[in-house]
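Example for tutorial group B:
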């Protein structure tokens, strides 16, 4: 409404943990109604892939996050998300045959064909732009499946600017030839760039002379 506001649901921790997950069966009607019915008793909120009040993605991709953020520890939030997603997946698997949302995951030719299609239709999709065909072809079957999981968001949502997620911290290392290029492309740095944390304001240009960031 023309000013900075604070939603009461966001009081408490400054952390919001969420997961993008495909729910093709629960969202087979094109809405997240059934997904919300399952998630509410689990203490989970359902949003579209662009956040609150946005549409779900292709293949029923939704943004899932714990509803509670006040008087609860960060560790409890992560645990609630983990346990909630586990039960949600069980409900999804039990609600019918899976759609073709991630049908590419077990077929290398289909994966490469889909990547090329996204690359041509959406050149700004960094997953497709930097997808390493030679590297992918050398992976084992299990590694290919895990790698496609990292890329699934961009395959299902071609208009995504990033189009990929590390499914676990180790993915950044085992799929380094891919993630290093994506990171360099997005952040406009070299592929061998190293991040260093530095909270010191010393030498930073654009600060007031007194060093106070106070806009009256």
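The residue assignment follows.
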């Amino acid at each position: 409404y023309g000013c900075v506001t604070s939603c009461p649901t966001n009081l408490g921790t400054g952390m919001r943990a969420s997961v993008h997950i495909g729910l093709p069966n629960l969202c087979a009607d094109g809405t997240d109604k059934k997904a919300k019915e399952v998630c509410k008793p689990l203490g989970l909120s359902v949003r579209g892939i662009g956040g609150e009040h946005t549409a779900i993605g292709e293949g029923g991709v939704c943004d899932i996050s714990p509803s509670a953020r006040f008087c609860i520890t960060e560790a409890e939030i992560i645990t609630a998300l983990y346990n909630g997603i586990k039960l949600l997946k069980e409900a999804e698997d039990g609600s019918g045959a899976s759609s073709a949302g991630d049908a590419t995951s077990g077929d290398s030719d289909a994966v490469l064909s889909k990547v090329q299609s996204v690359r041509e239709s959406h050149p700004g999709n960094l997953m497709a732009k930097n997808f390493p065909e030679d590297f992918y072809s050398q992976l084992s079957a299990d590694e290919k499946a895990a790698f496609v999981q990292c890329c699934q968001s961009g395959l299902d949502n071609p208009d995504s600017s990033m189009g990929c997620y590390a499914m676990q911290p180790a993915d950044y290392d085992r799929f380094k030839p891919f993630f290093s290029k994506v990171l360099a492309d997005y952040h406009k740095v070299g592929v061998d760039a190293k991040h260093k944390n530095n909270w010191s304001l010393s030498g930073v240009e654009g600060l007031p002379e007194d060093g106070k960031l106070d806009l009256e």
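Residues 97-101 have pLDDT under 50 and may be disordered. Compare this with the pattern of hydrophobic and polar residues in the output above.
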